[in-house]
Amino acid sequence: MSQNKQLYQTKIWFEEPEDNNPFSAKNSYVHGYNLYEDVLPNSSWSEYIYLLFKSELPSPQQSQLLEKIAISIANPGLRDNSIRAAMNAGVGGSTAASSLISALGVGAGQYAGAQEIYRLVSHWQDAKQNLPAWKDFTQNPNQKFQRVELWDPIEHPPGFEPNASSCCKTVIDALTFLSSISPNGNLRWLEKNRKQLEKYAKYPLSMSGVIATALYDLGFTSKESEMLFLILRLPGAAVHALEQEKFGWKAFPFFGNETILTDDPKNKNLT
Fold this sequence. Notes:
By secondary structure, this protein is mainly alpha-helical. The protein has helices spanning 35-42, 45-54, 60-73, 81-91, 96-106, 114-127, 131-139, 169-181, 186-201, 207-217, 222-232, 234-247; strands spanning 13-18, 21-30, 33-34.
């Protein structure tokens, strides 16, 4: 009597079982490289992440660019909605997983979130360095994504900051440094054409615009870039959640006096 077995299929991972225990691995291979004999002693974190996603080792330039991207967005800061979501979870005594999931949920959206990165990289794949195509994209940001039913129409040109009148210094600093690592890539083109693109969009360039371009320069697809963006921002969410948990809820700002309820139940006669 034969028994058909349906095995998981993956080109990423392969394991050789121990001779005396088929449930433990003697050797683990990632895209053909022995993880603990080759990758672990010889590779950096950024090289390993690139290998996982792209099935090949990066060049030194690619490894450095990915590492600097990770540093740039590891902690988006207190103004970022995903960080504040993690802070709220942390100060409320939520579990570690809950704090990170809060950051992931809020950071997945279309405003400075992973969906914005997805849209930008998708457009890079089509428009490349065509200024007229970028002009059309900034002025009609929903035209290309009309069939995406999960998301509401985006309210601003992806990659640009709708709540600012000029490009902030941190964005310019990040663009200048990252483009120096990739001098022949699209980051350099973005740096040279930033002001023209801002005129098209009527908004200044945002950090999302810089990071999406950098990820595209590394050869990541729109979906790979979306995933990486979510992962790389988690360290900031983690440390801020832990810090607020230590401070306690009494030290957490609550803007009660500035909150005005237009339909306050206490003003109603309840019977």
